[in-house]
Amino acid sequence: MVTRVGNDIYFDDLSEPEFGRLQGLVLKLGNLANTDFSLEKVLEDARKRTGLSDFGPEGFQEPLQVLLDAYKSDPEMTPIGATTVYNDLVRCASNRLIIEDRRQKSPNLDAIKLEKPLSISGLPRSGTTNLVNLLAADSRFQKLPLWEAQEPFCAPGKEKAGLGLKMRSKLMNCILKNGDSNIDDPRYYRGSLRWSSMKMMGPELAAMHPMNPDHIHEELELMQFDFGCNQFEWTAMVPSYRDYYFKTDQTPHYEYMRDVLKLLQTERGDERPWVLKCVQNPEQLPALKHIMPDATAIFTHRDPVAVIQSCATMIAWGHRMLRKTVDPRMVVDYWTDRFERLLRACVRDRHIWGPAKSLDVYFHEYMADQMGTVQKIYDLYGWEFTDKAQQEMSEFIAAHKRGKHGRVRYKLEEHFGVRPEEIRERFDFYFKKFPVAIEVT
Asked: I need a labelling partner for 373 at 20 to 30 A (CA). Which of 35, 86, 211, 319 fits?
């Protein structure tokens, strides 16, 4: 069960989930589903959804097949978990069709430049989300809200939302008190429905990782359409895909993402610089440098133990609907290893970005002085921190206070059977390189 004491949230049932009536009903209905994890079915459903047929170069099929095999061979995945990941693959394949259609209509894509991007990279839960959303409040940047990251373009002839889609979205917003928007776009309504469904299954998600459609998100979403990124590790246990990812050069997927940003820039008729963020970047710094050599790179850093206990809690909690049994120790072990590999790559390759084009931001310093951190970033970036930008950011901070939706209280040893020092000793190499403050003792 979930216990709330004032603004504090405690999870007491990670290993033995207790379901409310709504969650129980969803699980029962989900058990009726039978998912066909075949490449042909995913591609067929994407063609039907979009009315398009050309996926472009067939290289994407190999990583997609690795994912499908991983899902198919997972005996612990619940039927609702299978439906969830399958629908996401169809969404990704549908976006790929639409993007390929746009690409063929944009013969001068190579000539388009992404002017002076500002790129935020770092471990999840290390301030990347807060920082990119704060910087995105500055109207001199163009940014990537979640609803566009998940669906950059409408399929031809499907640019208007039907009445049924609008009504479902508005009804859910009303029930969950999400607020409304003046964006009249079918992609926005679908994004709103996805967020409402997630909140209905678990209201605490807003306190851990908001996914409302206006939320400024990461370009990692765009790499999903090429089926090459670590995003798929967040929604299922796919160690075989992880191993494939590590053995494969990720540069082509970064090039794909860059091209989608160029197409978006053309669609918007907007040449303002992008402010971007991606939690995968620390282990792919050569690929990032390759596609954005003119970027200014900001790297966020935080105590890995604080990051791991937060991520492991969120993922183990999410497993209650997606997996037949929840094993918190398996989750914390997987993500400890995963973040160690990511940070070892970051320490190895950090030198690629010299001091003239990069800055390390420490979570404890950023939380103590957000505006002072932004001033340092703008000094490096070569921008004036104008009165207007300061006002826009102040308004963002006032509207998005930390802990607004509640503050999760973590129990690392009790829930996961591991002591902070056991995890921390594996990251000695990281502490020697970056002076992060120890948060969990």
From this structure: 211
Average pLDDT, the chain: 93
For residue 145, give the DSSP letter. B
On whether both 388 and 260 belong to a single domain, the answer is yes
The pLDDT of residue 30 is 77
Q: What pLDDT was estimated at residue 146?
A: 95
Residues 126, 28, single domain; the answer is: yes
Beta bridge partners of 274: 142
Do 104 and 159 belong together in one domain? Answer: no
Query: Could you tell me which of 281, 279, 297, 275 has the C-alpha nearest to residue 143?
Result: 275
pLDDT tens digit string along 200-254? 777 677 777 778 899 999 999 999 999 999 999 999 999 999 999 999 999 999 9
> 350 in a domain, yes or no?
yes
State residue 73's pLDDT score: 97
Q: What's the helix, strand, coil split of the chain in %, to 5?
A: 60, 10, 35
Look at the chain and report how many structural domains it folds into.
2
> Does residue 280 sit in the same domain as residue 222?
yes
CATH number, position 99: 3.40.50.300
Answer for the pair 319, 326: CB distance below 8 angstroms, yes or no: yes
325-335 pLDDT, tens digit each: 999 999 999 99
Residue 263: name the closest of 153, 119, 144, 147 by CA: 153
In the numeric block, which tokens belong to residue 191? 């994004």
Contacts of 362 (CB under 8 A, 6+ apart): 300, 301, 302, 434, 435, 436, 437
Per the listing, tokens 């999903």 go with 224
Note down the domain range covering 276.
Answer: 2-144+216-433
| 73 and 201 fall within a common domain | no
Distance CA 215, CA 129 (A): 9
Candidates 125, 138, 127; CA nearest to 394 is: 138
- Pick the last residue of a domain from 163, 198, 213: 213
Please check whether residues 351 and 424 belong to one and the same domain. Answer: yes
Average pLDDT over residues 387-412: 90
Tokens of 220: 């990692």
Task: Report DSSP letters for 17-78, one per residue.
Answer: ----HHHHHHHHHHTT------HHHHHHHHHHHHS-----SGGGHHHHHHHHHHHHT-TTB-
Query: What is the full DSSP assignment across 221-284?
Result: HHHGGGT-SGGGGGTS--HHHHHHHHHS--HHHHHHHHHHHHHHHHHHT--SPBEEEESSGGG-
Whether 361 has a pLDDT exceeding 90, the answer reads yes
Check whether residue 280 and residue 403 sit in a common domain: yes
- Residue 42 and residue 131 share a domain: yes
pLDDT at 13: 87
